[in-house]
Amino acid sequence: MKKLILAVALLVGSVAYQSASAQVRFSINIGNQPVWGPTGYDHVEYYYFPDIDAYYNVPNRVYYYQDRWGQWRSSRSLPGQYRDFDLYKGYKVVINDDPRPYRHDANYRTKYAQYKGRHDQEVIRNSNDQKYWENKDHPNHNRWMQEHNKNRRNDHNDHRDNRDNRDNNNNRHN
User: Fold this and answer.
1) I want to staple 116 with a disulfide (CB 3.0 to 4.6 A). Which of 33, 50, 130, 142 is the partner?
2) What is the pLDDT of residue 14?
């Protein structure tokens, strides 16, 4: 009986450890998302733009698009053929489960065709949610920095007060 209980405890413990490890590997990249990105996502790998059938890799800040011969190209900016596309108004689909979604473009083009022409997403730039203020391009970033620095100063002062209290208590006992 003891062996059975031990085996179950080890099994439960290893599942909990694996679950915790998986959660640790997930990173929040709100501060790295472009301000034209949609709200509501703590982590984004790629945006798919149904209007122009192109992709944007958030961590690397690179666009993927097809040239006029149908070859996939990458660039830090969209080429001239997309100059009329408004990143703030165009619909963006978040793709987090495919390391190279442009390689499966036909699937995504079909799957998200209904979003082509939609312009109803709230973008990070227009959000009043303070979690987006961390983004250096957000209009309220300076306000976030002031609050963040104020909190950091308060934390520093709290630690100094605790140190002073310990010193005072030690002096009383001497």
Assistant:
1) 50
2) 56
